[in-house]
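Worked example 3 (structure in, sequence out).
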């Protein structure tokens, strides 16, 4: 007797109602269990039934049809570490009395599910499983675990081991009336145990320990500073204009930080080479020399951005700036300036042919996912988003929002960035925020033209906008985007989406991995 759905009463005038089980339901429960479990001790006795209701009334759920009880589920909460995977049904359920129920536990344990044989075909088992999932989420429990019988194994015991049988059921070569149902309801087999129900001859005393993970589980809810469900992002479509000094640049930066933080945004994104106008004061006949002089401003600008992040209580993804180190390596770097005063940096990995030939710029050696107070983020500078391997490596580290500062001079260059960013959002099941610069810089060699349209892209499924675009700016106009992103939608997509790109990868055939991830200088 364990978690056993029994599902195929003609659908005439049914009136189904899901509710909690009550003491007066005992006779109906007893009748169903006697019919479902004739070879497994039949129904609970009255004392066991009353104990279940008194110890955890919320976990006892039933379905009635026109006032007649026709299906039920029994559950309890346990501290799963106390029991581990090698428990027996009798021990973990307290011999059916649920004396082992622990209100402070972390796992909803499925004791039983049963459906009146006359009501098979109405998918009542699925309704009860869904009700359990809802209960698990509302109680903020880590998972649902249950021991599942494999009654079909008796027909294959001479040719297959229990492990082989389960694998055949998982691949749909064999139908098992219980395990097949459980797998179709998003449960996975945690392991196979023996002796779970010693009298279960159909399963040969074997059972599958099945598990469903609550993707909304939070370790401990914080009253202040807890994990966010909705993140507000701001993207600046930056106007390139003559800038004579650092103070002019700081004034423009602070204007946008002030404006976006006024909407209580969590993070603001600036474009690639947003400090490019400062290069006008250097020798334009030698672009390589000019960009190296521009790099002298990078450290003061970073310090100012850290100050702004603290002063305006907002995280800043600081587009990118050139960095020229003592090893005489010129790189393109983006800074993450957190509102707690800490900062990190991400180098551009792939330099364009233009950056190499005009400036002699080199690429960095690693990508990483950064922890912030609103989630896990990644930064890829412009050209890097056109290489799908990098975001895939980030996705394996829990990436939720990818920020892409870019600089493009023509529409076709912009469309390369845009189309690739949209693809990265879909294939990695994350949000992607892009932002570039507009206008022109007539006196700056190799940065004289700008074309941009900032945007925020989403995965493509029912929980997201129909075109997978959360918002987009007017092309080539200085402005900001303010967008709210629901991180719980990403969790739901990765478990229950129409397609699940990350989960469905054939890692038995291929994988993306670093051959060498160097330690970036600086």
């Amino acid at each position: 007797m364990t978690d056993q759905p029994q599902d195929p009463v003609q659908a005439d005038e049914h009136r189904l109602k899901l509710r909690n089980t009550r003491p007066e339901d005992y006779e109906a429960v007893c009748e169903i269990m006697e019919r479902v479990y004739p070879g497994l001790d039949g129904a609970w006795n009255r004392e066991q039934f009353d104990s279940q209701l008194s110890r955890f009334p919320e976990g006892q759920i039933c379905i009635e049809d026109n006032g007649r009880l026709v299906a039920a589920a029994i559950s309890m909460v346990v501290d799963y570490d106390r029991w581990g995977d090698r428990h027996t049904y009798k021990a973990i359920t307290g011999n059916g009395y649920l004396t082992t129920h622990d209100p402070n536990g972390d796992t909803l344990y499925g004791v039983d599910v049963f459906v009146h044989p006359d009501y098979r075909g109405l998918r009542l088992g699925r309704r009860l499983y869904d009700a359990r999932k809802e209960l698990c989420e509302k109680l903020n429990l880590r998972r649902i675990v249950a021991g599942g019988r494999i009654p079909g194994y008796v027909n294959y015991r001479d040719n297959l081991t229990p492990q082989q049988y389960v694998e055949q059921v998982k691949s749909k070569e064999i139908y098992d009336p219980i395990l097949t149902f459980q797998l179709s309801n998003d449960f996975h087999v945690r392991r196979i145990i023996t002796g779970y129900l010693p009298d279960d001859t159909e399963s040969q005393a074997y059972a599958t320990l099945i598990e469903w993970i609550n993707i909304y589980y939070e370790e401990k809810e914080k009253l202040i500073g807890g994990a966010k469900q909705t993140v507000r992002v701001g993207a600046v479509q930056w106007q390139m204009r003559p800038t004579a000094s650092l103070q002019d640049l700081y004034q423009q930066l602070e204007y946008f930080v002030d404006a976006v933080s006024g909407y209580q945004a969590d993070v603001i994104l600036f474009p690639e080479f947003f400090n490019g106008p400062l290069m006008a004061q250097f020798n334009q006949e030698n672009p390589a020399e000019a960009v190296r002089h521009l790099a002298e401003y990078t450290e003061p600008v970073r310090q100012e951005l850290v100050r702004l992040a603290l002063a305006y209580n907002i995280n800043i993804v600081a587009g990118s700036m050139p960095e020229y180190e003592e090893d005489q390596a010129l790189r393109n770097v983006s800074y993450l300036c957190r509102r707690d005063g800490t900062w990190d940096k991400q180098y551009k990995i792939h330099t364009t042919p233009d950056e190499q030939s005009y400036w002699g710029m080199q690429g960095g050696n690693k990508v990483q996912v950064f922890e912030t107070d609103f989630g896990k983020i990644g930064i890829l500078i412009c050209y890097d988003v056109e290489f799908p391997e990098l975001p895939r490596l980030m996705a394996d580290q829990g990436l939720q929002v990818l920020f892409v500062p870019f600089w493009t001079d023509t529409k076709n260059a912009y469309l390369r960035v845009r189309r690739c960013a949209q693809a990265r959002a879909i294939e990695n099941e994350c949000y992607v925020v892009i932002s570039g610069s507009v206008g022109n810089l007539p006196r700056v060699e190799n940065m004289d033209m700008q074309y941009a349209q900032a945007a925020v892209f989403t995965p493509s499924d029912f929980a997201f906008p129909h075109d997978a675009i959360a918002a987009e700016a007017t092309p080539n106009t200085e402005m900001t985007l303010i967008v709210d992103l629901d991180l719980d939608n990403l969790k739901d997509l990765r478990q229950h989406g129409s397609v699940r790109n990350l989960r469905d990868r054939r890692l038995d055939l291929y994988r993306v991995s670093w051959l060498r991830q160097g330690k970036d200088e600086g």
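Notes: Residues 223 and 487 are 19 Å apart (CA to CA). The mean pLDDT is 91.
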